[in-house]
Amino acid sequence: MRLSQEAPATPFPQLRRDRLQTLQVNLGYxxxxxxxxxxxxxxxSRTESMDADTLALIPRVLEARGLRCLDxxxxxxxxxxxxxxxxxxxxxxxxxxxxxxNLTILSEPxxxxxxxxxxxxxxxxxxxxxxxxxxxVDRQRGEGVFARSLAGLRHLNQLGYGREGSGLELDLxxxxxxxxxxxxxxxxxxxxxxxxxxxxxxxxxHLLVLTNMPIQRFAAVLxxxxxxxxxxxxxxxxxxxxxxxxxxxxxxxxxxxRGHLHDCDFNQQLALxxxxxxxxxxxxxxDPGPTAIRVGEHCFACTAGAGSSCGGALS
Length: 315
Description:
alpha/beta
């Protein structure tokens, strides 16, 4: 069975939404990098970007629904011209803001003060660093990315990020290099912490281990190498029912750059809208409640092994 833009028939267990806690917003697909594992297929040539009217709805929805977390993603969300104003407005409401940052954006022209801005607003930074070895990172994300990522991490550390008592949280994200399940999160976090501190003087709070999702760019790589079906079989065989109660889609709604609502960021990339279809503005007047979540074979990536979500391993 192959993934398509339509909801596939699948034996994945049915899920229902719990209480909504997090609004995850994709501000657009433009990015300064083009990573091989990217499930969004983001890159410098992408032009999709949330318009001002949709952007203005976000703080209103946060307040109307009493949400405590705004999770900003892309592309590189910081490249959106309304990013900083949105962060300020959300923080003024007392909402936690997460910036899913690729680290190299911190040294892009015009973004030299970005890290200082994030620190001043108390934004939680969740930063991609798929390995602590230079060769592996550059192979997955592009030549020179590891060095630029380390420079970004050192800058964040200088501002207090990742340091005990600062209140500035810096989490790193690991993705496997290919069609395999990630290693155990706690042990890998120990290795990251030891190597980055010893060799590079870098500290951080937590490591989040994510399973690669077999969609978009990564799915194309798998198909080209003949690994797509074996990888899906691995994910299915590694499914654990215990992870179903903790998957992110049960407490999160994903908003695409047009304001359409999805059960998660991965469904967004497969054009699987919530049922019934909803727009961001619909959340001003009502909570979606315990509605059914659209599932497909790709969902096994979230429940395989130790599980995977925007917050890392589930067990």
